[in-house]
Design a protein that fits this description.
Chain lengths: ~325, ~325
């Protein structure tokens, strides 16, 4: 099959949905001629023009809020925030307006918008351009939170997100933009709320998200050499979370390690661990372990930043420690 | 200005409806039958009425904490509004929104808003939809003087201006942001002056004069419909009651309230209509009695309506 980078897969999803549905438009800072901060929207303005690829000033509240208003009145905006770190600037429009409008209006409104934003450390961009804040968003009833790890998933999940009638936050790890994978040319959807088993195994379940899926797969390959068979589960969507796939895996392996780049305290792993403890406690042969970032802002200096992001070694040692419990 | 008699009478009826609705809400709030926070519009009726008298059903509005007057003016159903204030299942929001969130998307009412300044970008987005679809619909964003100090005001005005969106930003300047006088909260006398920063017309009008509001809003709306972009319309008015029901209003002199009551928009318009020979005093009384009955019916509907049932708590979080 044809290989595409995640960046190209997302671009293709946008292009195909814009062709399919004239109500879909793209908006955000530098999304037009510049092609997006990371190049995700490159070439769209040439095909669709400035009315459907709308460059905005640096004005995050208005980007998100105007998308809420446009979505509530019949369009299907796909807005880009340059970095997830900027949600703080615009949070009211995300969690008080977009997420609650339907509920507060007694179900008589829908807000079909997508908010795309890159997350993640690794480029020495320091603490205001490197965070993984998905836990903030998972906590908000009314939002859906998508966090793909592979180009194939990114394309199918983005198309589903654009077609979904709810506000969807679509988080892209910036160090996955260059990751290549098989991506079909035709449009296709992947249901939101459906996890994917990236690698089968029988001794331990590693639940990992976004960039950590790749690291978990590398760790699993190393563990295999030591005779340890790890299953890697990628939730793909954090809200709704696919409890069933995770629990089925635990029933098989009886051990869980959760890996994410967000800080550990009250991170996405806290919810996943609690869910496993509530729903699958009897299947566990050992305590649940979490491998995540320390409870600090993301540091600038390369060696510190490297240490901030969970490494393959930290994952393998967590798994080995768990197997000795 | 030649305004049809029918429209003039609609404006009168609408202002009276808002006033009587609000007075009744105050009564039921005091009696503990209406819950939460209630922010009343008494004294500001001419603003919503004058603006909405220019609007069509397919135009959009966003509203504020003090939203009942906007909703009534845009055609909101009194029974559904009252039932919502009573927290009943039959209310506009099935009892999940309350006073600060009543909406009727079918009527273009994109919600009252519990967040000061929350409506600016939303109205801008509704204006974008109109422009995107090539219709001549407009979006009206009602907001208070206090909200013009929020970042969203500036972001939305700027975006609407550079994109030439059909949005009319209607400032209801009632002189106070909760307890803070506008004189202390901003260093310009008029909110409308801020329009200059965005190359948008800024217009000041007597917000207690329904005909002046009607005319000024009409020009702004015409401008927006013809693709010339947004206007900032400032209506100088006053709220007779506190910021919310129960507010002791220690922050403003009683004389100031009394002064403004002399400029009450309803008797003022009654006199004008009498002078025009459109409304005799006994007709005004008849209209008030009729509207009183409609409000009785709304209250009866609300009181007799069922409460939401526990299983409804998780409904409508997501569209399926």
């Amino acid at each position: 099959m044809r290989k595409l980078t995640m960046l190209k897969a997302i671009n293709e999803a946008l292009r195909q949905e814009m062709r399919r549905d004239p109500r879909v438009y793209v908006t955000g800072e530098d999304v037009g001629v510049f092609g997006g901060c990371f190049g995700v929207t490159a070439g769209l303005i040439e095909e669709f023009g400035p009315d459907r690829v709308r460059d905005t000033p640096i004005t995050e509240s208005a980007i998100v809020g105007s998308s809420v208003g446009a979505a509530a009145t019949g369009l299907r905006p796909v807005a880009e925030l340059m970095f997830i770190d900027f949600i703080g600037v615009t949070m009211d429009q995300i969690f008080n307006q977009a997420a609650k409008m339907r509920y507060m209006f007694g179900g008589k409104a829908k807000v079909p918008m997508v908010l795309r934003m890159p997350c993640g450390a690794g480029g020495s961009a320091a603490a205001q351009h490197s965070q993984c804040l998905e836990a903030w968003l998972m906590h908000v009833p009314g939002l859906k939170v998508v966090a793909p790890s592979m180009p194939y998933d990114a394309k199918g999940l983005l198309i589903s997100s654009i077609r979904d009638d709810n506000p969807v936050v679509f988080i892209e790890h910036k160090f996955l933009y260059g990751a290549e994978g098989d991506v079909p040319e035709e449009p296709y959807t992947i249901p939101l709320g459906k996890a994917d088993v990236k690698k089968e195994g029988k001794d331990v379940t590693i639940i990992a998200t976004m960039a950590m899926v790749h690291r978990a797969l590398e760790a699993a390959a190393d563990l295999e050499k030591d005779g340890i068979s790890a299953e890697v589960v990628d939730p793909r969507t954090l809200q709704p979370l696919d409890n069933e796939t995770i629990i089925n895996s635990i029933k098989k392996t009886h051990r869980a390690v959760i890996v994410h780049e967000a800080v550990k305290f009250a991170g996405p792993g806290a919810e996943i661990a609690a869910m496993i403890a509530e729903e699958a406690f009897d299947y566990l042969d050992a305590p649940i372990k979490r491998v995540a970032a320390p409870f600090t802002p993301v540091p600038f200096s390369p060696p510190l930043e490297k240490d901030f992001v969970p490494s393959k070694e930290k994952i393998t040692s967590a798994v080995k420690a768990l197997l000795q419990e | 200005m030649a305004i049809e008699k029918e429209k003039l009478l609609w404006m009168y009826r609408n202002m009276v409806t808002i006033r009587l609705f609000e007075e009744r809400v105050a009564e039921y709030f005091a009696a503990g039958k209406i819950y939460g926070f209630v922010h009343l519009y008494v004294g500001e009726e001419a603003t919503a009425t004058g603006v909405c008298a220019n609007l069509r059903k397919d135009d959009y509005i966003t509203s504020t904490h003090r939203g009942h007057g906007h909703l009534i003016s845009k055609g909101g159903d009194l029974k559904l509004m009252m039932a919502e204030l009573f927290g009943r299942k039959t209310g506009y929001c099935k009892g999940k929104g309350g006073s600060m969130h009543i909406a009727d998307v079918e009527l273009g009412i994109l919600g009252a808003n519990g967040i000061v300044g929350g409506g600016f970008p939303i109205a801008t987005g509704a204006g974008l939809t109109a422009k995107y679809n090539g219709t001549d619909q407009v979006a009206v964003c009602f907001f208070g003087d206090g909200a013009s100090n929020q970042g969203t005001f500036h972001e939305a005005l700027n975006l609407a201006s550079i994109w030439k969106l059909p949005v009319i930003f209607v400032n209801e300047n009632n002189m106070y942001g909760i307890s803070m006088s506008q004189k202390k909260s901003m260093n310009v006398p008029d909110v409308a002056a801020r329009a200059a920063a965005y190359n948008v017309p800024g217009v000041v009008v007597d917000g207690n004069d329904v005909l002046a509001v009607y005319e000024a809003a009409g020009e702004a709306i015409k401008r927006a419909r013809s693709g010339e972009g947004p206007t900032l319309l400032e209506c100088k008015t006053y709220r007779y009651r506190g910021h919310f029901e129960g507010d002791p209003t220690v922050y403003r002199p009683k004389e100031e309230v009394e002064e403004w009551k002399k400029k009450d928009p309803i008797p003022r318009f009654e006199n004008e209509l009498a002078k025009m020979g459109i409304l005799a005093p006994d007709q005004a009384q008849t209209i008030k009695a009729e509207i009183g009955k409609l409000i009785d019916e709304a209250v009866k509907f609300a009181e007799e309506s069922p409460w939401p049932s526990p299983e409804e708590i998780t409904e409508d979080v997501y569209a399926v």
